[in-house]
Design goal:
This protein is an alpha/beta fold and 204 residues long. The chain folds into two domains: 2-129, Response regulator (Rossmann fold); 139-200, Winged helix-like DNA-binding domain superfamily/Winged helix DNA-binding domain (Arc Repressor Mutant, subunit A, Orthogonal Bundle), CATH 1.10.10. The protein is 51% helix and 12% strand. It contains eleven helices and five strands. The protein has helices spanning 10-21, 34-43, 63-70, 86-94, 107-118, 126-129, 139-143, 146-156, 161-168, 172-186, 191-200, and strands spanning 2-6, 27-31, 49-53, 77-81, 99-102. The protein has a five-stranded parallel β-sheet, sandwiched between helices. Helix 1 links the parallel strand 1 (2-6) and strand 2. It is elongated and about 50 Å long. InterPro entries: CheY-like_superfamily, EvgA-like, NreC/VraR/RcsB-like_REC, Sig_transdc_resp-reg_C-effctor, Sig_transdc_resp-reg_receiver, Tscrpt_reg_LuxR_C. Keywords: DNA-binding, Phosphoprotein, Plasmid. It holds the Pfam family GerE.
Length: 204
């Protein structure tokens, strides 16, 4: 597995490299800012996952994430941050980010999260995803993962599996697998019924 970590904090970078070097199947490349990371992406072999520090030089908020996602190669890109507002993380996930990793995450959990995202899944800490405001949450939402919610949103927008896959940088077969799980969780027989269920509870 090949990962690229871009962060301008040398001490943290050294710690992250030490974390991943405990795994024989992870090869790490590093960069100190977004322009350097993008140059590596453009000139090197494809990476299984790219971790970008939200606040490093060149990021300009989520614009840096979106730029990295738009580069050729269809790379999976995740945010790395000491702290990030819930709204920022939600917007990043909606934009197609592979996930969000807090810098405070324990080493073992961080390694598992990286492997999870490199396999094509979307990750955010459970406590973070469920740290909702005081507004009530429909039980249906609590059943679904962030990726399944993205699938459902795509259905309500009338998108095909191919279009959803393109937006989220995943393959069409992967979309179909997520759809099957989505249908089962919400009790829908097909994509039309799933979209109607989402509209009835005003989910999107």
């Amino acid at each position: 597995m090949r990962i690229l970590i871009a962060d301008d904090h040398n001490l943290l970078m050294d710690t992250l490299i030490m974390f991943f070097q405990t795994q024989s199947d992870i090869e790490v490349t590093v960069a100190s800012d977004l322009p350097s990371a993008c140059k590596i992406i453009a000139n090197d072999l494809p990476y299984d996952l790219i971790l970008l520090d939200l606040n490093m030089p060149g990021m300009n908020g989520l614009e840096g994430l979106k730029h990295a996602l738009s580069l050729e190669g269809g790379q999976r890109v995740a945010l790395l941050s000491g702290e990030a507002a819930r709204e920022i993380v939600e917007e990043a996930l909606e934009a197609g980010a592979a996930g969000y990793i807090p810098k405070t995450l324990p080493a073992k959990s961080m390694i598992n999260a990286v492997k999870f995202m490199a396999m094509g899944e979307q990750y955010a800490p459970f406590d973070f995803i469920n740290a909702l405001e005081d507004t009530p949450v429909h039980p249906l939402i609590e059943k679904l993962s962030p990726r399944e919610l993205q699938m459902l949103k795509g259905l309500t927008e009338g998108k095909t599996n191919k279009e959803i896959g393109r937006d989220l940088h995943i393959t069409e077969p992967t979309v179909k697998l997520h759809m099957k799980t989505l249908y089962r969780k919400i009790g829908a027989a097909n994509r039309t019924q799933a979209a109607l269920i989402a509209r009835e509870i005003e989910l999107f």
